[in-house]
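Look over both lines:
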Amino acid sequence: MSLTIQEHARARLITEGPDPRLVPVELRWDPQEPKTVRVRLPGGVEWSFGLDLLERGLRSPATRGDIRIWPCGRAQLVLELHAREGVAVFQFDNAPLIRFLSRTRARTAERPPAAPATAGSA
């Protein structure tokens, strides 16, 4: 059984054109990196950032490096990614993001805390 959590979502790619384009997006969490979310975009492009940034971005604007996240109304979130090639802006419905975060919280709550390191005596 894989301990990795994946959530498939559709996001609106915001462009200069009149209509946003719906694109498939995959959110992924791996217990080996419990504080990180990976977002796979069309074309195999993957961004990773702190899970806490996604959580904060659901409530209020949050920025870390080249990533900006902010709520858009009561039911949506905007993810803005800055790269050398330009800026990509995606608009998500909150439901799959909240479901993903709930699943990751549940999984981290299941994990026993790491045993503290003790110094050996000679």
Observations:
- The helical segments are 51-59, 94-110.
- DSSP finds two helices and eight strands in the chain.
- Strands lie at 5-14, 21-29, 36-40, 46-50, 62-64, 67-72, 76-83, 86-93.
- The mean pLDDT is 89.
